[in-house]
Amino acid sequence: xxxICPLCNGLYDIDYNCTNCGAxxxxxGPRVNLMDDYSPYxxxxxxxxxxxxxxxxxxxxxxxxxCGIQESFSIERKGF
Length: 80
Ligand SMILES: [Zn+2]
Ligand SMILES: [Zn+2]
Known about the structure:
The strands form two sheets. This protein has a three-stranded antiparallel beta sheet, with no helix packed on it. The protein is built from one helix and five strands; from the N terminus they run ββαβββ. The longest helix is centred in the middle third of the chain and has 13 residues, at 40-52. The chain has one domain. The protein is elongated. It is an alpha+beta fold. A hairpin with a 6-residue loop joins strand 3 and strand 4 (70-76). It binds zinc ion (2 copies).
């Protein structure tokens, strides 16, 4: 059995509502794929977080199409 992220694999969508305006946020994809755009400081932050967390999860960036804010959500990987 292997664990996969349901969002990365298109199994289903998860809707989050923007904390600012309540609009449905859009999945911008997993955070790891965006690493090239981030500074070394943020890379360190991600590494520390991964080392400290045992849970099997995928960090996704969600963006609000209405007001433009971005938030990170931890998506639990499922075993299949
Ligand atoms: Zn994912
Ligand atoms: Zn919003």
